[in-house]
Every structure is written in structure tokens, then in C-alpha cells.
Design brief:
Elements (H helix, E strand, L loop, with lengths): L2 H19 L7 E6 L8 E10 L2 E15 L2 E15 L6 E15 L9 E3 L6 E3 L3 E19 L4 E20 L15 E18 L8
Antiparallel strand pairs: 1-2, 1-10, 2-3, 3-4, 4-5, 5-8, 6-7, 8-9, 9-10
């Protein structure tokens, strides 16, 4: 886990220095949207900005507004930031990067999808797992790997996946009774830490027109 903060700091530090040292250059900017998630009503859009020949930074948002998706709450809001390094040329071919993201959610975690019994503590009531959901927020720190395919002078396709360490703080509720199932006098929030894939898809990117800098 300690290696991720170091890699993240080094990448963003080099990106910042690159921007200062090459401030007279006309950068390339791509606006993009995730075509893989859009058909299910989840919006994932952002922009990628060129800092130097092989270095970019991308900011993006993910919005899942579903109060009920297949009977399960799926309201997720994620803001993320990537620092990316391209091995051949910016916005083309293979790249790797460091990612930091933050999320707010009202959702049902995957391990609560079954109709089996769930008991928070030995002295807690027994509930049906699928009747429970979580409300909380997460901080994510990890890496992204992807490949950008140039479709023409203006359009790219960006296939990517990212993951790392996810630290979550949440409260648990019963969706029918409206009460908390995770009552604990010693703490207000539950906490979990996991290594997982938390981003990915197929971004369709459009290159904005460049405007030359005036000296």
C-alpha cells in the first residue's frame, strides 16, 4: 500500500513540472464519455489534458442515479483524477497511470445480494441479507492501465481499467424497516478496506480544436 502514494506523488509532480517547462506549447484536449456504461443509464464523462509529449492528466465524474436497479439501490457518485504516461505518443497506444478518486454512495454491496440470513453481532436480530443496503463514502488510490486507438483526426477510443485500495466508511440500513441493522454503541460508521477494480470501460473521446498561444 505504501508504494501507491509514492508513485502517485511522483507522477503528479513530474506532470506539474512538465506543464511549467512547456507553457508555450499548444496542448491537446479530449472530451470523452464512457460508451460501455451509458446504455444502462450510468454517466461517466471527463476530459484529458496534455501536459507534455507523453504525459497527460484526466479528470472524470461517474454518476449512477438509480434509486432502484434490478430491485437494488445503486446511487453512486465518483470524482477521479488520473496522471497518465504514454509509452509511445500522447493519446495513442498503451499507457499507465496513477489514480485518486472519492465516492459517495447509497447502494447494496455484492455480498448482500443473496436471500440468506445476516446477523451483525451474536446479540443482533437476524435479517434477510437482500433487505439490507449501505450509505457511505470511499477514498480510492490505485493505478490505471489502458490503450487508446485513434479512429481519425478528431476521435479516439480509450479502453481502460483501474483498481487499487478502497477505504470505505458506511452505515447499514434495512430498506423495508428504515432502521440501522449495524447498531454499535462504540462507533457510528463501519469501516472496510479492500483491494479491487473500481473503474473501467470504453471511452469515446473527441479532440477539441487547438488555438495557438500568443507570445
Amino acid at each position: 500500500m505504501k508504494i501507491f502514494p509514492l508513485v502517485f506523488v511522483l507522477l503528479f509532480s513530474s506532470a506539474y513540472k512538465a506543464q511549467i517547462s512547456d507553457s508555450t506549447r499548444t496542448p491537446e484536449i479530449y472530451l470523452k464519455g464512457n460508451a460501455l456504461l451509458l446504455p444502462v443509464g450510468i454517466i461517466n464523462a471527463g476530459g484529458e489534458y496534455q501536459l507534455k509529449e507523453k504525459v497527460t492528466v484526466q479528470a472524470d465524474l461517474l454518476i449512477s442515479p438509480w434509486k432502484s436497479f434490478s430491485g437494488k439501490p445503486l446511487q453512486i457518485y465518483i470524482a477521479g483524477l488520473d496522471a497518465r504516461y504514454y509509452f509511445k505518443e500522447t493519446f495513442k497506444n498503451l499507457y499507465m497511470g496513477a489514480n485518486i478518486s472519492a465516492s459517495r454512495y447509497i447502494m447494496q454491496k455484492w455480498n448482500y445480494w443473496s436471500d440468506g440470513p445476516y446477523q451483525y453481532r451474536p446479540d443482533s436480530p437476524v435479517y434477510v441479507a437482500s433487505d439490507l443496503y449501505q450509505v457511505g463514502f470511499s477514498a480510492m488510490l490505485g493505478a490505471t492501465i489502458g490503450y487508446q486507438l485513434q479512429l481519425n483526426d478528431r476521435w479516439n477510443m480509450d479502453v481502460f481499467v483501474g483498481g487499487g485500495n478502497v477505504q470505505s466508511f458506511y452505515k447499514g440500513y434495512h430498506k423495508k424497516l428504515g432502521i440501522r441493522y449495524d447498531t454499535d454503541p462504540d462507533r457510528n460508521y463501519n469501516r472496510s478496506g479492500e483491494w479491487m477494480i473500481y473503474r473501467g470501460g470504453v471511452m469515446i473521446a473527441y479532440k477539441l480544436k487547438n488555438h495557438e498561444h500568443k507570445k
